[in-house]
Write a structure and sequence with these properties.
- This protein is an alpha/beta fold and 348 residues long.
- The chain has one domain (3-347): 4-Layer Sandwich (Purple Acid Phosphatase, chain A, domain 2), CATH 3.60.21.10.
- The protein is built from eight helices and 13 strands.
- The chain has helices spanning 20-39, 60-77, 97-104, 114-125, 129-139, 187-198, 219-230, 336-347; strands at residues 3-9, 46-49, 84-86, 152-158, 161-168, 205-210, 239-242, 249-254, 259-264, 286-293, 298-306, 312-314, 327-331.
- The strands form two sheets. Strands 1, 2, 3, 10, 11, 12 and 13 form a seven-stranded mixed β-sheet that branches.
- Helix 1 links the parallel strand 1 and strand 2 (46-49).
- The radius of gyration is 19 Å and the shape is globular.
- It starts with a strand and ends with a helix.
- Bound molecules: fe (ii) ion.
- Fe (ii) ion binds next to loops.
């Protein structure tokens, strides 16, 4: 059976000014993961971290704490450091006036002109250094070696075959308050990733990682991303993992020809209305464990959530399907024929 086990973490928002409750929560998350893997004899193939490892641009100290935490996690789960995958979130980049000014004075049409965009890219990429350094220190891999414009692809070999991770950067144009429906992955990042993907051997599972859910991109980019990531001539993703909204959410984008399953999870800080400076929540923090069965096209999701004491348990409230154990199985290879088969089985 070709089965692949992925842990989904997001939005740890690590700061060097946080209180002990937050580090206790992160340690509880590791303990819970070790418990899950031991009690279920799970072999974790990869950890996907979908952004906002640090809070508010991250100080040197915050990036150091984050780096140490991921190394602790790798050690506790006994996995290869290369099998941890990161994409940047808006908090992983410092706010820069230059970015704000550039976006205010640039028409989005200019982003479709490669020469102009390449010139602007120097400004956009300048703030990626601290994040990229942390990723290199944790994984030993420089994700930006093979492509320009912020995206990358990594393939890992597991006991059951190849998993391909398409690392999408949705944070390069983030500025803060105006981000919803205004962000870009961009044509040039997608073109680079598609060209790189064409040169690679087929994989048994292809997952996208992107910090922002798709509705945070501008309308033209939403269409571009979904089309390019769900077409056989583009990158035919099996699912895409997101963070950013500090909750759990599973959605299908589906039409008669193709579909895409979006999986959102994350820890995060309290709602804006409840958040003081350097205040973090200990309850309703989420992470997830996914088991993708590439033979049947079915995904088993285990949703985990923290309580008021900062301990993790099964999330039985998010979906009716998981109301007993916080775990359920759904299709991820979204072809209508598969869904029809599913409904036929239900009728029996
Ligand atoms: Fe975010």
């Amino acid at each position: 059976m070709k089965s692949f086990c992925i842990v989904h973490l997001s939005d740890l928002h690590i700061s060097d000014r946080e209180d002990g409750k937050t580090s206790n929560l992160r340690n509880a998350l590791i303990r819970d993961l070790v418990d899950r893997t031991q009690s279920q004899s799970l072999k974790i193939d990869a950890i996907a971290v979908t952004g906002d490892s640090v809070d508010r641009g991250g100080s040197v100290g915050a990036f150091q704490i984050a780096e140490e935490y991921y190394k602790q996690l790798i050690h506790a789960l006994n996995i290869e450091k290369e099998n941890v995958l990161f994409v940047p979130g808006n908090h992983d980049y410092p706010r820069r006036t230059a970015i704000q000014v550039l976006l205010e004075n640039t028409s989005t049409d200019d982003f479709y002109n490669k020469t102009l965009f390449t010139e602007h890219w120097e400004t956009f990429q300048a703030r990626q250094k601290s994040f990229q350094k942390m990723v290199c220190n944790v994984t030993g891999v420089n994700d930006l070696e093979n492509t320009e414009y912020g995206g990358s692809i990594r393939t890992i070999q597991t006991d059951n075959g190849l998993i391909r991770f398409v690392l999408l950067n949705s944070s390069w144009a983030c500025t803060g308050e105006r981000d919803f429906s205004n962000l870009f992955v961009g044509k040039w990042q997608l073109d680079e990733l598609i060209n790189l993907n064409r040169k690679l051997p087929p994989a048994n599972l292809v997952l996208g990682l992107m910090h922002h859910p798709i509705d945070w991109l501008n309308i033209a980019d939403q269409k571009l991303v979904v089309e390019n990531l769900t077409q056989p001539h583009g990158i035919n993703l099996d699912a895409i993992l997101h963070g950013h909204i500090h909750t759990g959410r599973l959605d299908y984008t589906l039409n008669p020809d193709r579909g895409l399953l979006s999986l959102v999870s994350g820890v995060g800080y309290p709602d804006k209305s409840n958040r003081g400076i350097d205040q973090f929540k200990v309850s309703n923090c989420r992470y997830a464990i996914y088991n993708f069965d590439a033979d049947s096209g079915m995904l088993t999701v285990q949703l985990r959530v923290s309580n008021e004491n900062g301990s993790f348990a099964a999330d039985t409230l998010l979906y009716d399907l998981g109301k007993e154990t916080g775990s359920f199985t759904i299709p991820y290879k979204l072809k209508l024929s598969l869904i029809e088969q599913g409904s036929a089985l239900e009728k029996k």
